[in-house]
Amino acid sequence: MAVKSRPRQALVIASVLTLALGATACSGDSDSGLDPDSPECAPYTNYQGHDGESVSIYASIRDKEADLLRESWKQFEECTGIEIDYDGSGEFEAQLQVKVDGGNPPDLAFIPQPGLLARFAEANKLKPMTPELKTIADGNYPADWLKYATAGGQLYGTPLGANVKSFVWYSPKTFAEKGYQVPTTWQDLMALSDKIVATKQKPWCVGLESGEATGWPATDWIEDLMLRTQTPEVYDQWTTHAIPFNDPRVAQAVDQVGSVLKNPKYVNGGYGDVKSLTTTPFQEGGLPILQGQCSLHRQANFYANYLPEGTKVGPDGDIYAFYFPAVDPSKGKPVLGGGEFTVAFTDTEATQAVRTYLASGEYANSRAKLGNWITPNNKLDVSNVQQEVDKLAMQVLLDKSAVFRFDGSDLMPAAVGSGTLWKGMIDWVNGKDTKSTLDFIEGSWPK
Amino acid sequence: MEFSDEAPKLMMLLYGLVAFAVVVGGLLVLLDVVPAWFARRREAALLAAASAGAVRTGAAPPSRRRSVANRREGGLGLFFLLPTLLLLVVGLIVPAVRTTLLSFMDGNSRNWVGLKNYTWMFAQDEIFSVLTNTLIWVILVPLVATAVGLVYAVLVDRARFESAAKALIFMPMAISFVGASIIWKFVYAYRSGEYAQIGLLNHVWKMLGGEPQQWLSNPPLNTLLLIVIMIWIQAGFAMVVLSAAIKAIPAEIIEAARLDGVSPWQMFWQITMPSIRSALIVVVVTVSIATLKVFDIVRTTTNGNYDTGVIANEMYNQAFRFGQTGQGSALAVFLFVLVIPIVIYQVRNLRKQREV
User: Fold this and answer.
1) In CATH, what number is assigned to the domain containing residue A293?
2) In this complex, do A20 and B13 lie within 8 Å of one another by their Cβ atoms?
3) Which residues of A14-43 are buried (b: 16+ CB within 10 A; e: fewer)?
4) Which residue in B173, B199, B168, B167 sits closest to B186, CA to CA?
5) Mean pLDDT, to the nearest integer, of A40-64?
6) Is A94 on the interface with B (CB under 8 A)?
7) For A426, which of B108, B305, B324 is closest by C-beta distance?
8) What membrane topology term does the record carry (chain B) (predicted)?
9) Mean pLDDT computed over every residue of chain A
10) Is B109 inside a domain boundary?
11) How far is A267 from chain B (nearest CA, A)?
């Protein structure tokens, strides 16, 4: 028996070997690189000298956006010979912690939460910047942004992509037909809402459902109103817990949000009553505008990605966005936004090269040309920005009178910012009163 | 394809193959050689004992010799236990000890905080509701799932379309928890009254004249509706095991009972139930443990919002999403403590059966 089975074993081993060899043979043909000395590669000479090394990047960006990322650094890879291993995950925040704790961190990560970035920095997991990169970062990015990647006086990351959240989507066509004006103050916005109510339509449509992150669009509302009813300084005290979460000033902002989100006359155009907010996916939140069932939808510039194909986005198109007006425009123009930061967990020379490249103006322009992307990098040539609404977002971002603040829930500890704040907002929209909601969130702040 | 490009990959492959051969080959050789060596030693010892016995009948102290043999047997036993012990240490004991230690530390696992994480568990209303929800789950699911499975098994026993009927209720077992939750999420889906309902439950509810409900956002009903999903999955398991146990009841007993003229009711309580007792216990215990650990259903449907959280889900959120490793570990330890009595009961029960 034992003798008889030998040939079969040999066959199995042989076939496994063939398979394995075949697999390796197939995977190794992507090296059709450009000549490093060719003129196309001239911008990359500073990063050369690490041929054959690979750098891993871990982030939360997936699917189409991830393909655009890969395309954006393709030429860099070909000219430098550095291979960038990009991995995007929907479980990024939880898995990054596991990878780092397990001693298997990626070389680079794009972290969208300054709070998470600070946590890794405090645990001494992040590598500081080279002086060269520090100079580039200081030259390319506004201090408003860099402070969110700073922990303990040390700069750890450079901004990558950005988004502007202070936008209200509307239909320019319908506005023209009905003779509505784009509002420029909070009072105008409310007057417009009432005017639409008078035509027997619910003016606002909102979607808060987003899987495990359900509730986040409501936190953006709160943040936008905190910035509009309070000074930026109070906003900073709020996100750093220098004032308690149940402070009366926070309650005032929340109540002001409630005057829209919890107003059965105002919501939820195209979907039903207030209770439908938490079950409407955020991706579908603004779609009733296209059907004329709703007129206003507060969402970031990236909402353009969720519109059906063929939708005309622009000042005279099917849908467009206007700046979410300030309560008192004379006090400046508050802008709420978000973005990712490139941080490094290792400091090999190849990693340094990739990291420096991602902070450069060349990269910003290379990525912007592919569309669907803006950045606070001031070396970006705005004419390279593709979409209408992204151009508008860049305009808002570059506006000298604008006061920029980062998304507050991303600044807070994760237990609040991506935990009880979301949960609290869901319960609040579904009927819980402001005071007990804020007390609950205050009680959950990690001590 | 240039060979120089592929050389490092081939080397890598070669290393992998060599490492594989060394580990697996080494294990095989060890498993072959060591027992053989022990067997030879034992044979030699027996031979020596026999020859010694032949020379000086009964003079040698047998107790000492037996203890030497016992020790060798012990060595052999230990050898076979080694892989299991190793895996247990790596996969269970070390993580359990580490988790317990972490549960006495703060969120960053840097400072000791004593029992703070455990008092937090009971002080926070939210977490307390998580604990009570888990309790509701662990009481209802095993009871109802087993009862449904049992009734179904008894009803379809020797019925005409028995296998088809059984397949019908067993099929949900083949669906993953996440898949089942997504299916049921559609059943519970909500649209406002003025729109067409896409959820089955709301559709039926509306036909009966009710207003469409947000089934998954209304506590405490939503927890019960999630429990229905678990029962839907587990009833099939209960049914199959219990049905097999019912079939295994000796025909003589049933025949004797029939001759004695029992009613179907008596038959069930006096004959069937006592005969399948051990299978019943296995089912209840297995389902209880599965229920204590339930995570996928809650995470997929509500992610613990609207007061539906359970321990396993909250543990994951605290430890991995919120970075509160201490609090997450405390929940894990608490869950572990809850499972232990059930496991002890099960082990004792198995022992008792073996004695019988």
Assistant:
1) 3.40.190.10
2) yes
3) eeeeeeeeeeeeeeeeeeeebebeeeebeb
4) B199
5) 88
6) yes
7) B305
8) Multi-pass membrane protein
9) 87
10) no
11) 12
Q: What is the pTM of this model?
A: 0.77
Query: Are B83 and B129 within one domain?
Result: no
Q: Which of B125, B193, B324 is facing A415, going by the closest CB pair?
A: B324
Q: Give the domain range for residue A376.
A: 53-164+338-390
Quick check: A4 pLDDT over 50?
no
Q: Which of B39-43, B54-58, B95-99 has the highest mean pLDDT?
A: B95-99
Measured between beta carbons, which residues in chain A are less than 8 angstroms from residue B189? Answer: 279
B179: containing domain: 116-355
Compare CB distances from B324 to A21, A278, A446 and report the shortest one's residue: A446
Does residue A307 fall inside a structural domain? yes
Of A373, A390, A407, which marks where a domain is finished? A390
Averaged pLDDT for residues A355-375: 92
Contact flag B322-A413 (C-beta cutoff 8 Å): yes
Is B98's pLDDT higher than 70? yes
- A314 and A302 together in one domain: yes
Examine the pLDDT at A223 and tell me if it is beyond 90.
yes
Shared-domain flag, residues A84 and A111:
yes
Are A277 and A199 a contacting pair, CB within 8 Å? no
A97 and B217 within 8 Å at the Cβ level: the answer is: no
CATH code where residue B314 lies? 1.10.3720.10
**Which residues in chain A have their CB less than 8 angstroms from residue B316's CB?**
94
Domain membership of residue A33 (yes or no) is: no
Q: B108-132, pLDDT tens digit by residue?
A: 788 899 899 999 888 888 888 899 9
CA atoms of B356 and B350, how far apart (whole Å): 10
- Asked if the Cβ–Cβ distance from B320 to A430 is below 8 Å, we say no
A85: enclosing H helix or E strand: strand A83-88
Q: List CB contacts of A19: < 8 A, sequence separation 6 or more.
A: none
